[in-house]
Design goal:
The protein has 404 residues and is of the alpha/beta class. The protein is built from 14 helices and 18 strands.
Length: 404
């Protein structure tokens, strides 16, 4: 589906964090100043597709649009042959937008239409968009526990439904401007387990794993709250974000299951559940590990991918995210080493890109070992499979480490 099986993801979060501080991860990593060089580095390691962002807060001026910050991104993609999935809303939104108001839906759809039209006018080839990044996580973080603006509490499900409305309207607007646009809907893939010797929580965990974690996808596909207007066409490509923190014991949020915990499921098991539920193309849209665990995770990721492709699961790619080291969302002076390139300031304050060699070597091994699987895979998508969804919980854990 993409120009390479492995994609790179540039951390694109904006918004007001837990401490009401403004964050812009693209600026913090100096990706905005180094787009050309960053894309050249991707091409040099055999990565020819990326998740990158149009920052809504930068381009929207009260409903008028200035896409000057997007032009260098498009130009770098064309120059280096990097196919881009454009992330349109990654937590940050214009200051005059109320996410709980009906006007938000209209404003977001208008922005999506303008962004799609701009990308189409300045690009060649296929167009890929992610309207809202991780609506399940964001509805919990921003609507339930107040970790991101609008810092609401107890309104997580309300915000999740509102975000689903916005995504559906945004997709309709994108396709009015670019009828053949591809939509990559991205959300966290999580799993919880009951504590040992506590059978009372088994049903709650099963409900979370079978229902709550899929609410946003189900609304987009029309399986839940069909009056919102969702359909399989709106769901399109399912992007799942998975980190080592995304499995935990109920009531121990922020404490991931150990790798050797027998209750932990493999990534291939989790992705198979997604495939059996929706029967559509799948992208692992975010995955990574930290520090010295980066190379071992790459090798485990390769084994899990081989298992999925051998079973004809239509896994279309894996996005290594973030591809650059980055500051923590809620502790901007604390940097996390979880990318293919660590960032180190030089005397002028510029952030040099220093490759983490063990992960780079593991990536090259993966590229070689997966080449034949990717070229020979069949992967024909089938029709969606119905499933009930009746819980209001919203607790997906992308970036648990950052939220501790």
């Amino acid at each position: 589906m993409f120009r390479s099986f492995f994609l790179a993801g540039f951390e694109s979060a904006t918004g007001f964090n837990l401490h009401r501080e403004w964050i812009d991860q693209i600026a913090a990593t100096q990706h905005d100043r180094n787009i050309d060089e960053d894309y050249r580095l991707l091409r040099a390691v055999g990565i020819r597709a990326a998740r990158d962002a149009i920052r809504w807060t930068l381009v929207d001026r009260g409903g008028q649009y200035d896409f000057s910050t997007v032009l260098p991104l498009i130009a770098a993609g064309r120059k280096h042959g990097i196919e881009i999935i454009y992330d349109l809303f990654h937590f940050g939104y214009p200051h005059d937008v109320d996410l709980f108001a009906d006007e938000f839906i209209r404003r977001f759809a208008d922005y999506c239409c303008a962004a799609a039209r701009f990308v189409r006018a300045h690009s060649d080839g296929e167009c890929y968009f992610t309207p809202i990044n991780e609506p399940s996580y964001f509805s919990w973080a921003a609507g339930e526990v107040g970790r991101f603006a609008p810092h609401a509490q107890g309104r997580g499900f309300e915000l999740k439904v509102q975000l689903a409305r916005a995504v559906i309207a945004g997709i309709n607007a994108i396709r009015s401007a670019v009828p053949n646009a591809h939509i990559v809907n991205v959300d966290s893939l999580c799993r919880v387990v009951p504590p040992q010797n506590n059978p009372e929580l088994v049903r709650i965990c099963d409900d979370f794993n079978s229902n709550a974690v899929f609410q946003s996808f189900d609304m987009l596909s029309g399986r839940m709250l069909p009056a919102l207007g969702g359909s399989p066409s709106h769901l399109d490509i399912v992007g799942v974000n998975y980190y080592w923190t995304n499995q935990w014991e109920m009531n121990r949020t922020g404490v991931p299951l150990r790798d050797d915990d027998p209750r932990r499921w493999s990534l291939s098991q989790l992705v198979r559940v997604v495939w059996e539920r929706y029967r559509t193309d799948i992208l692992i849209s975010e995955t990574s590990h930290v520090g010295e665990m980066r190379a071992p995770w790459m090798r485990e990721l390769t084994r899990e991918t081989q298992t999925l492709l051998a079973a004809d699961v239509p896994l279309r790619g894996i996005c290594l995210y973030p591809i650059l080291g980055m500051p923590e969302w809620h502790a901007q002076q604390q940097w996390t080493r979880m990318g293919l390139w660590d960032l180190a300031p030089n005397q002028s304050g510029a952030l040099a890109r220093e490759p983490y060699r063990p992960m780079l070597d593991a990536l090259r091994e993966s590229q070689r070992s997966l080449e034949s699987h990717v070229k020979t895979g069949k992967h024909a998508p089938a029709a969606s499979m119905p499933s009930p969804l009746d819980t209001r919980r919203s607790l997906c854990a992308r970036s648990r480490l950052r939220d501790q």
